[in-house]
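agent> Task received from the user: take the single chain below, predict its 3D structure, and emit structure tokens. No templates, no multimer pairing.
agent> Plan: (1) validate residues, (2) run structure prediction, (3) serialize to tokens, (4) report one or two observations.
agent> Step 1 OK, no nonstandard residues flagged.
tool_call: predict_structure(input=
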Amino acid sequence: MQDRWNDADAESYLDKYGPKWGADLALRTYSSRIIGADDALVLHGGGNTSVKGVERTILGDEVPAVYVKGSGWDLAKIEPQGFPAVELAHMLRLVELPVLSDETMVNEQRTHMFDASAPNPSIETLLHAFLPQRFVDHTHADAILALTNHPEGEDYVRAALGDDILIVPYVKPGFDLARLCAERFRAFPDCAAMVLMQHGLFTWGDTARRAYAHHIELVTKAEEFVVARALPKAPRPGVDKLATARARAAQIAPLLRGALAESGKTWVLTHRVDADTLARVNDPRLDRWVEAGPLTPDHVIRTKNLGCVVRVPDGDDAAMRTAIGDAIGTYRVDYQTYFDRQSERVGGGLTRLDTTPRVLLVPGVGVFAVGEDPKATRIILDITDHTLAVKDESEGLGAFEGLPEDDLFDVEYWSLEQAKLGKSKAKPLARKVALITGGAGAIGIGIAKKLREQGACIVLADRDDAALARAEGVLGKGADLTLVRMDVTIEASVANGFADAAGAFGGVDIVVPNAGIAHSAPLPSLADDDFRRVMDVNAHGVFLTVREAGRIFQRQGTGGDIILISSKNVFGPGAEFAAYSASKAAAHQLCRVAAIEYAKFDVRVNMVNPDAVFAQDGVASGLWAEVGPDRAKAKGLAFDQLPDHYRQRNLLKAVVTGEHVGNAVVFLATRQTPTTGASIPVDGGVENAFPR
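)
tool_result: status=success, residues=692
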């Protein structure tokens, strides 16, 4: 375990935060961040830290306080304001109560804060409060869990860490755990640290440095103990096996996504595979590892109790679909049975969560995480990685033993978690995946921006790598955005682009054929090569895109939307613009046919007909940069007069932007009306282009 403390860095935190927040809170922030930076100690909000001090009230009273990590803050990024101050004396009195509900405890913590606008203090605030030392560090270190999650766990803790460690049996986090720890601590006040079985490690000290250093020392001892007893690792697969796994993941992801969908509700899937992951999902011990449950109970909120092992045979879609459906169907039945059994135990009154597995372990392929969005799936994947690694690496201590079902259910269906249900409203396109061709252009960026605002994951496809990078800079990087190099004129490139989308998010729900080029010339001088080039992108490219979209929609079986970015020129063609007008009319008609054919798959196909879009968010239209001078010449205008010419010719005198086009796409993608085969003009009102 790496000791990340650096005196120079610590001093910089004193300089930055000390003048306003004081030295202790400045160093508390620093040591918390270096703890949070190590995912072998904490994962995604896990663990918490605190420091004790004094708050001066508005009346001038100096009141002892405990500053503890606030809910929603990540230790790796925490700021001083992420440590709400709570009245210490009141917390110490609460620990002495014989019984206290978690809801009342949370309320007492909230009502005894010094700043009403601060975040809620950690659920483990009372644990931090009763420990007398100034600085307290708590993590869910992998190596500690590797010791505790075995039948001989207490013996392993003593052998690895020494006899001066206070060991506390598992109790669900909250008041009962705090009270038990306080009782045990009073009986062993000289203990050097505290290990909570199946939960984690507490260390403390009078300085941030001492608390942190002791934490690293004990975790290192745990690591050394486990490594010294480790069994030989199974051989790791080579590069060829990993490439095969990724290809198979893209192949089966739409089938998985279709099998997971219920009542039209889809999920985002994220695949992960590396040499260690592939070796572990191929390991004959996989089923036992899955049955053993999570490393620590708070993971159950993210991953549920058990993962779902899906063994997918080689073969056609029918065979794969059957195997996938059987595995997921069995999981759903088992989850319902688990809920019914546990609900009866606790007397009912609970709202059952969905029965969808959050972790799919596929031998030969890797791990898929199932979630509301890519942020959730990446957290699930990280937790799964650590879970499999700890179970694998601690096999030398014997078979991993997770918590009993009752304890896991009590956390998964914790009243504090149940109270959150229904309080957040999903965005209209949450869980949806949109693929946009020509995505790096002005219109593509506007569409991506609007779909993303409504919750969709975005696959930005374009043949220009530099333009894709520029578009990403405009839109902003994120787990919900992936870039795909795709040339819509090449069949294999289109198929690979959709496969990349499936690999990134599990599949596709919204396809926006937007890639287009133009050429301006009078018919008598229009070169055959130029006409074919424009038709190849604007018509043939749409054909390949719409065809591949239909194939993936059929494999998913969850419906979908195709929204063609057509053109005002379909209904109002322009002189010396024959290639563009004809190609757009061909694509438009193709999509009207697709609307007829695809309706039986619950796939809607609609068209958006914009007039000239010259730029979006500082990105100039490549199409207009190419043909603008010739179009201006054909209209007897200077090039810089074109934008105003197009504005003046529409009834609303509107400047059409990529975001306007995006708004129309969002309207169709959110299915606010039962519409297919329709054309929506986004042109400010051009009379000769009214659809008819």
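agent> Step 4: summary for the user.
The CA atoms of residues 110 and 120 lie 6 Å apart.
agent> Done.
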